[in-house]
# Entry
Amino acid sequence: MPVQPRRAYQSDSATATVRLSGVGFGYAAAHRTLQGVNLILPAGSFHFLTGPSGAGKSTLLKLLTLAEHPQTGTLHLFGEDATMVPRRALPAFRRRMGVVFQDFRLLDHLSAFDNVALPLRLAGGKQADHAGDVEEMLDWVGLGDRMHDRPPSFSGGEKQRLAIARAVITKPDLILADEPTGSVDAVMAERLLKLFQSLNRLGTTVLIASHDEALAQRSGANILRLEGGQLTGGGS
Amino acid sequence: MIRRLFNTRAPLLPRDAGGEAWLAGLIAVLCFLACLAAVGAVSADRAAQGWARALRSEATVQVRPRVGETGAEAAARAAQTLAGVEGVDEAEAMDRKTAEALLRPWVGDAVLPDLPIPYLVTVRLDPAAPASAVTLGRAMAEAGLDATVDDHSLWRGEVERSAGLITLLAAAAFLLTAGAAGAAVAYATRAGMAAQSAVVDTLSLNGASDATIAGLFQVRYGLLAAGAGAVGAVVAMGLVGALRFLGGAEGVTPALPLAWGDLLILSPCPLLAATVAVVVARVTALARLKRGH
# Structure
């Protein structure tokens, strides 16, 4: 694992990285996708979020990425109330997160190198300063020889690895991953799991939403189960 | 490796983020029209100033002879008196022949001998400090002459008002053109953001601020408008230059005299177009992002 922490992570067990209290959310007034969700992810913890399709896993991750706001309850991120965070404050929260989207959300017009370097670039980093890290990360996810290629020419698994590389390149305080092993083979899935575990050992809080119950069991992580918009196990 | 050496970065927004070719064409046409409006205003103002200057530098005095004095004698005396007034360069009594020559095209030869033609003195005034109609009238009165002074102020006022109106119309045309360009950029920005909503979302979720995202659109459309503005200005320069070359200093008509220097006033066009585009794109993008684009 090539990643080394650039800054000391302030791991304070009293401060949860994520704290949800009575969170409810629905796309339609008549139907609540999430209801009364209480969840605490202590700093440096590793959790899997499992549950059937439509249980609300992706919606919960959307709330945590601040793409949506809770309609009821409160959401605290990194010790700060993020329930109704104003738009101007979003980048500060998001730069502390690494997000792996189910649909990858890669920029097709950029090379693999530029996709991975994107969060560093948006944080004001210079290419000369981070080029080595990006190349090393691409090597590690097995895409070192394709750094100048663009995502449309990648397979689903390659896109997923690229998306993961982008999410972890900044060594974020919190990693949120939506089905990060859904498009890769078992060997790569194990390898990616090890990457997340390595980052977790460095102090990063990791939450992975996945259908793969077996992988969740093998990871040794805390397992949260979401059903019908409610946490039925593992949450606090 | 080469890219690393030169540290060039790929643009975060894809090329043609929303029908940029038509926008460039539209802005080029609008800039061309704005350039023509600007040159037209400058040219009309120059013509009006020239005419006003010519009118301001002349006055006409109509003399009515006293009893026992002929009209010609009265006019000669008036010319002599006026020539000595400060602010007058030259005063000359108009003889009957000259007056008849002026009237002939209007009334014909038949009635001229019976026509009571006024006795006039043409006065050429000092362009730097012209004598006023009041001064000339006072000089006439002091010399015991019954005279009426016409300093052409009526005509001059008309010409200056016309020039002012043309300038206002040109300014309005220019502002309307700028407004149309701004509206086009606003539309293109909205279309671009809609077309690239996935890119905008990805940038935002990876830590880009609204200002950063708006900055991408403003740079994109600012550069596009600068390029299109340059094309419009160059075409307008070509047209104005051709008219100046073919028509000489008077251009195609005395009402629109052209100067080579007029080409210079077109040079800020790309900058103005870029400024309008940058401001409009930023305001539009920020508003869209605030509303969740």
Notes: Chain A touches chain B through 28 residues (CB under 8 Å). The two ends of chain A are 32 Å apart (CA to CA). The first helix of chain A runs from residue 57 to 64.
